[in-house]
Design brief:
One of its GO terms (biological process) is amino acid biosynthetic process. One of its GO terms (cellular component) is cytoplasm. Zn(2+) binds at residues 192, 255, 271. Its cofactor is Co(2+); Zn(2+); NAD(+). This protein is α/β, with parallel strands linked by helices and 367 residues long. The chain contains 14 helices and eleven strands. 43% of the residues lie in helices and 18% in strands. A seven-stranded mixed beta sheet has the order 1-2-9-6-5-3-4, with helices on both faces. A hairpin with a 2-residue loop joins strand 7 and strand 8 (158-165). Helix 6 (183-199) packs across helix 9 (223-240). Bound molecules: nicotinamide-adenine-dinucleotide, ligand LNCXM5UN and zinc ion. Zinc ion binds next to helix 11. Residues 144, 148, 150, 159-160, 192, 244, 248, 251-252, 255, 329 line the site of ligand LNCXM5UN.
Length: 367
């Protein structure tokens, strides 16, 4: 009997823009052999930044890189959102300083979106910018966070308030990593996949609606296709607008309210769960503004509930949420701006909606 040839990874290209180099997102299995080529020939030192939950992965990777002749260190970060702080970034800078990390050395971020956001930010800020490679290990990291070069940390005042646009040299999405992901985290990533479906690729919605239970699994029949389709949406959008001067804002669909919910919950809600509620809110806002048809608005709640994502939030928190939304990055002056839909895959900006409209949309998600 012959052993089947390993399937080559899918390669999705992200164009360089505004002086940055193009790079590829690879999706497949057993991709770590690609890492040395992405680290490049100039590096002497490599720092592997990983969350506590992936301690053994981080150490194996460090040992592997050391065997290849790099001076490799593993830097363990707290799990999840707790890593996105100035203190954790400073801890990483200290580790780099003590290792004598130079401009030709390379950072590898292995973990979920929180880890790759910090790893990218440390890479952007160390010596004003060093090369980094993203190895996302969550659905959300693969389809969204690791692609596009938005890096950053939170401050007491809000989500992702400090950061930089600093694209990686490459992104390795090893689907096998998803098999250890708790279902709660897996499903959180589906929110960003569903977002990609509503803003650009409705086939995603059809695939999930055909078998929502299978969509919740790392080994479902459509898993790889869903992940690849969402990455293609992100890659296409960021290729044309790295610094979010225009079209990239559509990737923020549902995020204006989501970030306010995350802050209000002291980051104990997963990002994807907050984005799910935020998209239902944005859909209702679109409907109330006369931009979105009833069927598409209703489809939000149905698909998100079908995969087990939340669609409501505590009704008594509205004043605090509005206050936080006022400092959303899309706000211009005093003008709140939301991404809404004018139909499937037809995102648009809604500027300065009447407070009564916001209140009416809020009533639809208030628990
Ligand atoms: N930069 C961007 O463009 C962008 C886009 C979307 C989201 N984000 C950010 O991404 C973050 C959310 O990312 P996330 O949903 O991946 O969550 P996360 O990074 O918080 O990870 C969730 C949990 O899973 C653990 N984990 C990671 N991989 C694992 C694995 N393979 N097996 C077991 N456990 C694992 C983590 O340690 C953590 O405890 C948010 O901070 C969000 O703001 C950034
Ligand atoms: O890549 C983008 O652009 C996005 O908006 C993707 C979002 O899913 C992501 O959560 C992003 O981190 C939000 O960025 P922010 O600029 O609103 O903080
Ligand atoms: Zn997001």
């Amino acid at each position: 009997m012959t052993t089947p040839e390993p399937t080559p990874p899918t390669r999705i290209s992200v164009a360089g823009s505004e002086g940055t180099a193009p790079y590829d997102v690879l999706v497949g299995r057993a991709l770590l052999g690609e890492l040395p080529a992405l680290i490049g020939p100039a590096a002497k030192r490599v720092a592997v930044l990983h969350p506590e939950a992936l301690a053994s992965t981080g150490e194996v990777l460090r040992d592997d890189l050391a065997d290849q002749g790099y001076e490799a260190i593993a830097v363990q970060l707290p799990n999840g959102e707790e890593a996105k702080t100035a203190e954790v970034a400073a801890y990483c800078w200290k580790a780099l300083g003590q290792t004598g990390f130079t401009r030709t050395d390379v950072i590898v971020g292995v973990g979920g979106g929180a880890t790759t956001d910090v790893a990218g930010f440390v890479a952007a800020s160390w010596l004003r910018g060093v090369r980094w490679v993203a190895v996302p290990t969550t659905v959300l990291g693969m389809v969204d966070a690791a692609v596009g070069g938005k890096t950053g940390i939170n401050t007491a005042e809000g989500k992702n308030l400090v950061g930089a646009f600093h694209p990686p040299a490459g992104v390795l999405c090893d689907l096998a990593a998803l098999e250890s992901l708790p279902v709660h985290d897996y499903v959180s990533g589906l929110a960003e996949i569903i977002k990609a479906g509503f803003i650009a690729d409705p086939v995603i919605l059809d695939l999930i609606e055909a078998d929502p239970e299978a969509a919740r699994s790392a080994v479902g029949p459509a898993t790889a296709e869903l992940i690849e389709r969402a990455i293609r949406v992100k890659a296409e959008v960021v290729s044309g607008d790295l610094k979010e001067s225009g079209r990239r804002e559509i990737l923020n669909y549902g995020h204006t309210l989501a970030h306010a919910i995350e802050k209000n919950e002291r980051y104990n809600w997963r990002h994807g769960a907050a984005v799910a509620v935020g998209m239902v809110f944005a859909a209702e806002l679109g409907r109330i503004a006369g931009r979105l048809d009833d069927a598409t608005a209703d489809r939000h709640r149905a698909i998100l509930e079908a995969v087990g994502l939340p669609v409501t939030y505590r009704g008594d928190q509205w004043p605090k949420l509005v206050q936080t939304m006022r400092v959303d990055k899309k706000t211009r002056g005093d003008l709140l701006r939301f991404i809404v839909l004018e139909g499937l895959a037809r995102p648009a900006v809604l500027e300065g909606p009447d407070p009564a409209m916001l209140l009416a949309a809020h009533a639809e998600i208030a628990a």
